[in-house]
Design goal:
Layout (H helix, E strand, L loop, with lengths): L7 H18 L4 H8 L3 H10 L4 H10 L22 H6 L18
């Protein structure tokens, strides 16, 4: 089972940054993208600044930025999925410490 060490905030920031980069690459202002997508300018600004946006607004932005098909890859089942551990379980799982190697307290070459 793979465990992601990224936080939700980090994922939000990454998505928002990639959307902003696409907008800039297409030479669109925030106002133009908001108008074309039907997303309010305030929502777009908040998304680019904080990573917060409603799913339908995100999909409308993706449609205008030609990346709507990327969402088809989300949560696709490719192999059996084990239940992900809760954050509480991850935090309470004891950490296995590696045993120290070498000769502690002895001089080498003796």
């Amino acid at each position: 089972m793979a465990i992601s060490l990224r936080t939700v905030k980090e994922a939000q920031a990454g998505i928002a940054g990639r959307f902003k980069a696409r907008r800039l690459a297409m030479n669109l202002t925030q106002r133009e993208l908001a108008q074309r997508s039907g997303v309010t300018l305030g929502s777009l600004k908040r998304f680019e600044r904080e990573g917060l946006i409603a799913l339908d607004s995100l999909l409308n932005l993706a449609l205008v930025l030609n990346c709507l098909d990327d969402f088809e890859k989300l949560a696709v089942e490719s192999q059996p999925i084990a239940a992900a551990p809760s954050l509480g379980a991850l935090l309470t799982t004891p950490v296995r410490r590696r045993r120290a190697t070498g000769r502690k307290g002895r001089e080498h070459g003796v």
